[in-house]
Write a structure and sequence with these properties.
Rossmann fold, 7 helices, 11 strands
Length: 227
């Protein structure tokens, strides 16, 4: 089943001589349970694309479908609710709430939406990511790799349709990056989560099922990760 699909996705900033086309008619799709890496150099449009996929910014033209729902057909409030329920985010800056402990950070988005926490599922995710003994710690008591694992657990625990990871290892050393990405991939497979990761790192991208390349705002044909 196709979980994520774009059609003619275009984002233009400015006009006249100041016109910049950050995304140019981007078309691609991602299937349920797939781990796709979108690879591009700085300025290629990959971050703009991620913002469009996550409904964080609206395109100049084109569409994004999440579970066959045209997300930009919704108003701002409806889109915010949809995004909170259907899209999980993992950022390189972790974005943990400093005054909440590990467990509270993980379940915070679920509680924010007014839903009951699936305690058994949350506990399983926490155990899978090796966080069981850290649940009472605050973010400043964790290493960078541990904080990123908390961010991944937070995204998984809400059971979103898709997880968007923006340079998730950008602030980590090479060994920790490999460990975190392995956990992300293992967790995604275990819970049949669909993951789209933005990265400029070819070695990291090779861990995905499929690599999609973006150059000058244009999506290039994406083959298998080992091609």
């Amino acid at each position: 089943m196709t979980v994520l699909k774009t059609e003619g996705l275009t984002k233009i900033y400015g006009d006249g001589q100041n016109k910049v086309t950050a995304l140019d008619n981007a078309d691609f799709s991602v299937e349920q349970g797939e781990f796709a890496a979108i690879v591009g150099t700085s300025g290629s449009g990959k971050s703009t694309l991620l913002h469009m996929l996550g409904g964080l910014d609206r395109p100049t033209s084109g569409k994004v479908y999440v579970e066959n729902k045209d997300i930009f057909s919704m108003g701002d409030e409806a889109l915010t609710i949809f995004r909170r329920r259907k899209i999980g985010f993992v950022f390189q800056s972790f974005n943990l709430v400093p005054t909440l402990n590990v467990y509270e950070n993980i379940v915070f988005p679920i509680q924010l939406d007014g839903n009951d926490v699936d305690e058994d599922f949350a506990a399983e995710v926490i155990d899978t990511l090796g966080l069981s003994d850290m649940q009472e710690r605050l973010p400043n008591q964790l290493s960078g790799g541990q904080q990123q694992r908390v961010a991944i657990a937070r995204a998984l625990a809400a059971k979103p349709a898709i997880i968007l990871a923006d340079e998730p290892t950008g602030n980590l050393d090479t060994r920790t990056s490999q460990d975190v990405l392995s956990l992300l991939k293992t967790s995604g497979q275990k819970y049949q989560q669909t993951i789209v990761m933005i990265t400029h790192d070819e070695a990291i991208a090779q861990m995905a099922d499929r690599i999609i390349r973006i150059e000058d705002g244009r999506i290039m044909t994406g083959g298998a990760a080992d091609e």
